[in-house]
Amino acid sequence: MLNESRRRAYMTAMQVVNWLPRTELPFAAPSRPELLAPLVEAPVAEPEPQVMAEAAPSRPQSAAHAVERPKVEMPRPVVKPTVKAAVKEDAAAPVAVKAPVIPPPRFALQLLRAGSCLLLVELATGEPFQSRDPSYLLLKDMLRAAGLPDSPQIIGEPVRWPLLVRGQMDQGPEAARDFVQGFLFARLEEAPCSLLWLIGLPALRFAGESDAQSYNRELQVDGLGAAWALPGLELLMDEPQRKAEVWKSMRRLMARWKTVNE
Hints:
By secondary structure, this protein is α/β, with parallel strands linked by helices. It has 2 domains: about 5-55, no CATH class; about 105-260, Uracil-DNA glycosylase-like domain (Uracil-DNA Glycosylase, subunit E), CATH 3.40.470.10. Helices cover about 35% and strands about 15% of the residues. It is built from 9 helices and 6 strands. Strands 3-1-2-4-6-5 form a 6-stranded mixed β-sheet. Strand 5 (about 220) and strand 6 (about 225-230) form a beta hairpin. It is rod-shaped and about 150 Å long.
């Protein structure tokens, strides 16, 4: 048999606050009346046998109700989609890359003949040469220094690009090159020349398929033959120091047209 102190220790371990023995316990302290009053006024109804069988406890409990510990639920953090994940999804989606639209080049070129040479000259203003234009006077000086007639013959209208303001025709750089070279090829078939002067960057780019690195050099152009690359007349007037290099290259090539003229 348990004494009162040990019995209370067991009840405390089982979290039993109030309890009432079925029979008188030896060595037990007398029951307190204030604890028995609720039990007498509202007796606990005994459950039916069927209910007791379904809800049989795993371990015996005393007649008094055990006090249950309140369950504390810890809040779970809510995981929100991060901005990086959304960015990765957007980056994974294929992006259609549009081909860059290349605007058509714009230039005006004038073809002239001086002796046995053809000259394809850039018109910086887009307008035909006038007799008192500074650029035309410089061209006359260059022809006199080369031993050629200083009144060159103008052949046809200036070649202007683009050809059409509107329309579906391709007017890109390749189309411009094909047009200029076709125009020169037709003129050379009519009257061959000893050397083709390409004066100005547009003439050099779309007739000679070269760039400013070829200034003052002789070129061999497919279908057009030998050509001489020269800076534009406006550039020579803005940078007079370039005239010395033009004169040096002219002396190397002068024999080409002098032998024909003689």
